[in-house]
Design brief:
By secondary structure, the protein is an alpha/beta fold. The protein folds into two domains: about 210 residues, D-Maltodextrin-Binding Protein, domain 2 (3-Layer(aba) Sandwich); about 210 residues, 3-Layer(aba) Sandwich (D-Maltodextrin-Binding Protein, domain 2). The chain is built from 18 helices and twelve strands. Strands 1, 2, 3, 6, 9, 10 and 11 form a seven-stranded mixed beta sheet that branches. It has a three-stranded mixed beta sheet with strand order 7-8-12, with helices on one face. Strands 4-5 form a two-stranded antiparallel sheet. Helix 1 packs antiparallel against helix 3, helix 2 packs antiparallel against helix 13 and helix 17 packs antiparallel against helix 18. The longest helix is centred in the last third of the chain and has 18 residues. The protein starts with a helix and ends with a strand. Keywords: Signal. It comes from Cryobacterium fucosi. This is Extracellular solute-binding protein.
Length: about 450
Amino acid sequence: MKTKLLATIGVIAVAAAALTGCSAGTATKTEASCTNKIVNKTAPQVTVWAWYPAFEEVVDLFNKTHEDVQVCWTNAGQGNDEYTKFSTAIESKSGAPDVVMLESEVLSSFTIRKALVDLTEFGANDVKANYTEGSWKDASSGESVYAIPVDGGPMGMLYRKDLFDKYSIPVPTTWAEFETAAQTLKTAGSDGVLVNFPTNGRAFNQALFAQAGSVPFVYDSTSPTDVGIAVNDQGSKDVLNYWNGLVQKGLVTTDDAFTADYNTSLVDGTYAVYLAAAWGPGYLQGLSDADADAVWRVAPLPQWDAANPVQVNWGGSTFAVTSQATDKKLAAEVAIGIFGTDEAWKIGVEKGALFPSYTPMLDSDYFTNLEYPFFGGQQINKEVFLNAAAGYTGATFSPFQNYAYDQLTEELYSMVQGEQDGSKALDDLQASLVKYATEQGFTVAK
């Protein structure tokens, strides 16, 4: 049964990624070509797949400062594009890099296939203190550590100060005040809405649930065929019914996220608020058709109980060592060390718009006091994102996370079409995920 389960999960991972329309990679390590320059040609090379912005400069810095190892970097595609190629390499037992960039939410989908190395035997716990609690938990399972955290996505609220001032809207600190702000904007006859609620938000939607205490999955790689599923808890239902109420009142839109139309709406005043992770400011600034007259500021994410704030995270990526690595110890040195200096992180922050999970950078005066011209010189890290990062304690993802997100998207779409309320959407999601997990050979905890 376990062999069948592992094979099935592999097919699902490839199929889910294939929906992006990319083709599978076929290159082997011997065929790999480096995007970057190799400084010391006599040193052994570690192949790396990653799509970080400005990453070539980070690689160049590493290669210039290391004589014992050199990084050979390739951008094998972003997100699911890369995962498709990695899944193909896993199935063919060749062609994977030594080190691969993976979002924390998909780690379990690859550990169950024995595609990643437990880094505890290569000194991962020696650097644990250099990372935030939440990011380390996201990269771990039980006593095992399957990746080194890089960046994270503590959440805040980006808002159009010019529009808030125009309509005399106070910056909301609670979700009740957020609804009042949405109603004020509509009553004033604005052409736009306060915010968009995307049914395809995936990790964004799950972060909203987590703020109300949701723990959707229990999973430990030491018991790979056991999984706990609890996506229909009362907190999640309360959150979803809140958002469905805003939808049905016409106070928010339900556009798919990260489409061309969505990006336009982010910058043309259609949305007065962008509920964003700490990488959101970089994403927003990168939109080429941004309104030069817009005045953006950042505030903490609204809370259900202002006296007891709960911080949540959306996204985050890691470096993992693959089971196909030629020299796993050397590959672990790269995974641990490539973003292991302040100098590397200054490149990541200033040129890649990354939010570090690396505490020496997080705690530095440089990062704390950094001013962002796009936000009128606001110190957004000090005022918002550092507190959010410190309050995030981590999450557990399922070994079929892509499937779970796809099912969530279907249920949310049905909800916003008026076919069901939030409670039924999550009850149906619970039933479908339990059925799916059981059919794939998992034992679902009661």
